[in-house]
Each structure stands twice: as structure tokens, then as C-alpha cells.
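hey so u asked for the seq, here:
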Amino acid sequence: MITKLRAAVAQWTVVVPVVSFLVLILTWHEELPGWVVAVVACFLVGAVLSAVHHAEVIAHWSGEPFGSLVLAVAVTVIEVALIVTLMADGGDKSSTLARDTVFAAVMITCNGILGLSILVAAVKYRTAVFNAEGTGAALACIATLATLSLVLPTFTTSSPGPQFSTTQLTFAATASLVVYGLFVATQTVRHRDYFLPVTPEGRVLDEEEHASPPTLRAAGVSLLLLAVALVAVVGLAKGVSPTIEKAVDDAGLPHAVVGVVIAMMVLLPETIAALRAAVRNRVQTSLNLALGSALASIGLTIPAVAIASSWLSGPLVLGLGAAHMVLLALTIVLLTLTVIPRRATPLQGAVHLAVLAGYVVLALNP
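ran it, C-alpha cells below
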């Protein structure tokens, strides 16, 4: 029975990404009526679930932290493409889209995904245990890049408004790439053991214990299907984004809500994968996904929009407002206090979720 169930799941996760990609081709740049948007949304959810499955297959074959890195980078690369595409189509109205989406990704990953993962693991196992060295390194990089890319533009004076001058933007983009590259090298080569799951006693878990790893061929097929699924996820998200924008405008909500919704849709694969890892008491894997996605979102998006700004007609606004800077500072402080003890209780998870709730409330009602 279990063998038949696994075969059905494997077949489903092969068919859905391909069909979702075909739906994307058929609906690309088309005006979609309401019922078609509903169908597209169903395929979007299916593509997300299949992406999580294939990411876990790759993670099982390659081991941590490579598996979580593959998912985080793949999703972020396509997220960047979505942001640049929407900015190219939106003109001045989308001048803050990159900032809003990146900040939403940081808040969702560092408070939402991380908070939920800690809460789930701590409730089930009393405490959530992780490696402070790896998590602290990721936190340091996030704090640095978020400050350089999202806070400093508010205080610079070379350009009017919360914008960088060309020289400043070039520096921020270069620093983002360099810091992110150094982090990846640290995570995968020099100090890989810092990013592996640990037991409550502190023993590093370098292997999965429940099943033999997939073959190279199976991992290669999953890598291809993961790419197809993620392209479908972001492409279909772009297809439903006009409906989202119209709903936001009709509700009288700030345009920044669009960035929040986009970030939530794009980060859904990481959220599901992180929660499944937390249920298995692999909290470090969950934190790798959460913080790695936040870091990739900043480290890859800022250079991409810096390059795209050379041909985009509208301005590029990156500086955060005062309320969002307070939330960012609070998030960094909470992350520091969460990381230092190397273990967390349900209280820490709930506190992070409270900060995310505050961010959502301010996004809906500034």
C-alpha cells in the first residue's frame, strides 16, 4: 500500500509541473476572466507542492545544506525575474515594488517561516535545537545587506527621495553579491558542518536516517522538474497578479500589499519545506531555508534591479519608511536573542509570529 502511494505521488509530481507549465504558456500575456484565474490558482498550488517534493528529493541526494540552498536560490532567481518583469510593465507605479517585495520576503522568512518552524518543532519536541554558528553567520549577513540596501537609501542625499545615486547603487549591488557569495562558500565548503541539523545533545546529523538516497538519475530528473515547477509558480503568479492588483485597488489598500502577496506566493515552497523539516526535528534545515531565502532575496534582487534600472524608465525607490525600519531593527534583535542560546521554546516562535502580524497590519493599514 505504501509503495503504491509513493508511486502515485511520484507520478503526480511529474505530471503537475509539466501541465502547469503548459497552462503558463497558454495564459501568458492574456486577459484572464475570473474563472480562468481560479483555474490558474489551482495549478499554481499544484506547482508549489510538486516543487517542494522535488526539492526534498534533491536535498536527500545532495545532503544538507545543499538541498535547502538549491531551493532558496532557485526560487529567488525566478522571483527576481518576476520583479523585473512587473517593474518593466508598471512604470512609475512599480518604483517601490522591488523594495516592498524584498522587505516582505525578509519579514516573512525571518519571522513567519522561522517562527512557524520553531513553534512546530518546540511544541512537538519541547525545544527546537539548532546550530548557532551557522544561523548566526546568516543573521550577520542579512543584517548587513538589509541595512546597506534598504535602510541607507532613506538617509543618503545625493539623489532626491529614498533613492541611491548610480555610484551608491553600484556599491550596494556589488556588496550584496560579494557578501552572498562568501556566505554560500562558507555554507557549502569551508564550514558546512555549521549548517547541518543537530540533536538535542549537540551531535551533528550528517545523514538522513530514514531512507537510502535517490539515484543520480532520479535527482537529475527532480532538478529538471523543480526548475519547470518554479518557472510555472512564478509565471502563474504573474498571471494572477493583475487580479491581485485590481483587488488591492478596489479594496482601497496600499500598493505595497501587492509586494506582500507576491512574496507570500513565491515563498510558499520554502514555507512548506521548512515546516516539514521542523516536524522531523531538522530545525537547522528549516532555518537554512528561512534565512537562506531572505539572504538570497536581498543578495540577488538588489544587483538584478540595479542592472535593470539602466533601461527601466521609472525611478528605483529602495529606502524603507520609519515604521518598517523599526520592524527590521526589532526583527534583527529578536533573531539575535533567538540564535544565541542554540535552542528555542514555543515562546520565541510565537514572538516572531507576532512581529510578522504587526508587519501585515501595518501593510494593510499604514
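Residues 60 and 99 are 34 Å apart (CA to CA). The two ends are 53 Å apart (CA to CA).
lmk if thats what u needed
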